[in-house]
Design goal:
Blueprint: H1 5-8, E1 13-16, E2 19-22, H2 36-48, H3 50-59, H4 62-88, H5 92-97, H6 99-122
Antiparallel strand pairs: 1-2
Helix pairs in contact: 2-3, 2-4, 4-6
Length: 124
């Protein structure tokens, strides 16, 4: 019997009952730390873009994609928080004078920045 293309490229089979199943493995990927933004992106891909998720997974590019999303989202979030705080006058002086107002404003800024990051990067 002629060898299959899989066997010609160095693939092997394992007998499972009456069937020969190919021994498939995913390509090795670099391990990069992922955080909350990458986990949100992963959940979004699994639920709403299954084809893209499986393409990234089987090509061995899922973790690198999630690492890139994490880095980009984190830098965008920090930049937006800084810009919004400067624009609205949220300073250390306000923090010393009126801590409760400072906390309210910072929480509002962080919420708006998180929504922007999700809309622009995570759910895009």
């Amino acid at each position: 019997m002629a060898k299959t293309i899989f066997e010609q490229t160095g693939g092997t089979y394992t007998m499972q009952g009456d069937y020969c199943l190919p021994d498939l493995t995913l390509p090795a990927e670099e391990e990069r730390p992922i955080g909350v933004w990458a986990h949100r992106r992963l959940r979004y891909l699994k639920q709403h873009h299954k084809i893209l998720y499986y393409n990234l997974l089987t090509s061995g590019k899922l973790h690198s994609h999630l690492g890139d999303v994490e880095e980009e989202a984190q830098s965008l979030f920090l930049r937006l928080v800084k810009e919004y705080a400067e624009r609205e006058g949220v300073t250390e002086q306000l923090k010393a004078e009126n801590p409760m107002e400072w906390v309210q404003k910072v929480n509002n800024i962080r919420s708006r920045a998180a929504e922007t990051v999700c809309a622009d990067l995570i759910f895009a």
